[in-house]
Amino acid sequence: MSNYIYDKNIWITGASSGIGFELAKNLSKTKCNLLLSSKNSEKLVRIATTMMENAKVYAFPVDVADTVAVNDTFEFMTNEVGYPNILINNAGVYIGKPFLETTMEDFDKQININLKGYFNTTRAVLPAMIELRDGAIVNIISVTAKESFKNCAVYSASKAAVLSLMNSVREEVREHNIKIINIIPGAVATNIWDEAVLKRFKNKMSTPNDIAKVIEGALQMCSSETSMVENIIVKPQTGNL
Q: CA-to-CA distance for 92 and 114, rounded, in angstroms?
């Protein structure tokens, strides 16, 4: 199989930290164009300037929950670089609270970023992918979409909704040679956790680089004319925390 990533325009959301940052850092060693997005514009621009190895790296600050901003950013990046061939939906937020302590603000924030954000970016890129009859969309979801845990009811609901959404979208775009890949990690050592949890469990968690490598492998399969990756579950060796 050929190198699917080579010379592609790759849009990564939530690229200023965690899995998105590690993936961008790894991909910067290949010949591609990295279109990095994050709400944290200052950090995003700073890290983008440090990643220019073989890749060309561009920073596009945007709040993925803002539909107008996403559409404007997509138009701007296509004019500056070209249509994204690959979208990595990674931006997300986790608010760990018991259900009865979860506020409407907590609810809206998680649903807007974790679900609406993926909807917005996917809606933006698909028309061009369909026209070109090529493209891949990778969604970083969570094992909470498939298993039940305490203190994350709304987060779990947002991730389960994304999984259902993207599985359905996949069936709609198969005929256009577009790949929809869902990465479903267990606990990953990122700043989504508070410091106390990381201090206690970090050594048992997957690393962001572990997940980045899985994404890279799944993308390479996109060059196959006969097979594709659909849903991948990645858990720490010790299982759920």
A: 5
Q: Which region, left, alpha or beta, applies to residue 151 given φ > 0 means left and ψ of -120 to 50 means alpha?
A: left
User: Is residue 87 a contact partner of residue 134, using CB atoms and an 8 Å limit?
Assistant: no
Residues 6+ apart with CB under 8 A from 168: none
Dist. CA 111–CA 131, nearest whole Å: 30
The answer to whether the beta carbons of residues 133 and 74 sit under 8 Å apart is: no
Q: How many Cα atoms occupy the beta-carbon half-sphere of 213 within 13 Å? A: 6
pLDDT confidence bin for 1, thresholds 50/70/90: low
149, containing H or E segment? none
DSSP characters over 43-94: HHHHHHHH--SSSEEEE----TT-HHHHHHHHHHHHHHT---SEEEE-----
Distance CA 168, CA 24 (A): 27
State how far the Cα of 175 lies from the Cα of 177, in Å rounded to an integer: 6
Q: Which residue has the tokens 């004019």?
A: 79
Mean pLDDT of all residues in 191-212: 94
Statement: 9-234 belongs to CATH 3.40.50.150? no
Query: Whose CA is closest to 33, among 13, 60, 61, 5?
Result: 5
Per-residue pLDDT reduced to its tens digit, 6-48: 999 999 999 999 999 999 999 999 999 999 999 988 889 888 8
Taking CB atoms within 8 Å and a gap of at least 24, the contacts of 68-76 are 70/117, 70/120, 70/121, 70/124, 71/120, 71/124, 73/37, 74/121, 74/124, 74/125
Which class for 164: exposed (0-12), middle (13-18), buried (19 or more C-beta within 10 A)? Answer: exposed
